[in-house]
Amino acid sequence: MEVGMMKKPQPFRNALFLSLLLVFCVYLRTLFQQPFADDEIYLAFSNSLLRQAPFSELYRLFLEPANPWEFLPLRDFTYWLDFRLFGDEFVGFHASNLVWYALSLAGAFCFFRESIVFCRPDWKERAGLLSLAGALLFAAHPAHVEVAAWVASRKDLIAGTLGFFSFALLINAMREDGTRRRYGKIVASALLLFLACFGKASATAYVVVASTILCAGIRTSKNRGEKFGSLFLFWGLIGLACVIHAKIGRSTGIHIENAPGVFAMIDRASRITSALSGILVFPWPMRFYYDVYLLGNWHWVFSVGALALSLLAFHRLTKKPELWALGAVLVFSPMAIYLQFAPFSTWSLASERFVFVSVAGLSLLLIDFLGRMTKPGVIGACVAALVLPCTLVTWQRIDAWDGLGNALLDAEYRYQPEFHNAIRDRILFTLIPEKRHDEARTLSKRLRRDYGVDAMLKMIDADLAYAPFRERSPSEIDDGDAAPKFCETSARLRESIAAGRKRMLTEADISYNSILNMLERAQKFRFGNEKLICPVKIK
What we know:
The chain has 23 helices and no strands. It is mainly α. The chain has two domains: 12-404, no CATH class; 417-533, no CATH class. The longest helix is centred in the first third of the chain and has 30 residues, at 90-119.
């Protein structure tokens, strides 16, 4: 026992816990923020299943996607429950997000504590205190604002929370003496991880962390058959989840057939790895969009270094459980699902929410560093030096995240006026609604892909042609050419989007698919009575 560390542990522990509560309270400001972007689609004030389905019809969540793009019944059940509890009061949805965020902090704390006892049994007496320090560092990270403030990102909270509890339970099982109790915990851990995959599909990548923990446990186990059987259990369940998500993705069109060449795919993955690592290690300034193609060739150095560190961590864990190695695995393995080797539609190739679980890995690395110190004052100074600036950035980021009046999207356009996602949102959510069509045309031509330019111009033409029908029914329109003109421009828009989809096959920057997705959504919702105007499709 380190005497210096244990002189006055209780006051220091209380100070850490109070600091954790204060950092969490910073997020209370998200309660009164307005719906933003996908909030309207997921919660949909157009989603009758989530809004109106009685309890007896909840089975439908497990048979069909509650929104057109993802099969996430656990996430969608929480939305259904929010509607039952709060109706259309959006503050209730934010409150649910904060409950899940609090649970994620509890899960991270449990995971940190189990990891410390597993990897460093000589730190057992300090495990609770060090875990509190790790949870505080985890809570203060500015990248968490997106998942806490954006109701549509609740899937990240759900998947991460269940993942943390699954890892904690699995590590605890590795230390269990009784075979029956140990195997029961392993099964429970596997089921939690499987459930996490239906909070968010990217949780399938967490199986790498679980496998690492199992392999570290196998190293010291006399019953290797049991542990290898556990590996098959985890991979079997996650494989099943992958099959389900892949099938749903292809049926809904969210999956993109993309083969731009091996080098382009590796280059894209390297850029994404570097961008996500940058958000993780230096989270300022924060952005809603990150253009990974602005990175210079230095991304190769960083991504190769990340790969080397991951391999070294895996190797060390097969020899001896070490906190830094487990932290490194947790930093990089959740990113693997976002590297777009099997592309799925996305807003951008890098985002704050993508590193939610990786922040716990960074916290574990810092715990390993702090644990080598023996004086509470030194540890407190190090924690404060990290937490205070991070909390300040978090406070500022929450201010920026209010969706009222598309303020966040307008800010993104000011920051990144040449980035295609910022241009897209500027046109669709500001210029077209404000009928500034000439500006929209000029801005459309700044998109870097000709199929994006063509589709956006077709959207502007369709919106202009739809103008007579916006406030009147088709029967009230005197102009006999209005309906055929709109139907033709709308059909051309569909043809342009379809042509763009074909181009995605060889597109390196697949985030351009989000332009096509958003145009498709805009066409559906902005031209709400198109079926009445165009009862027969124009070929």
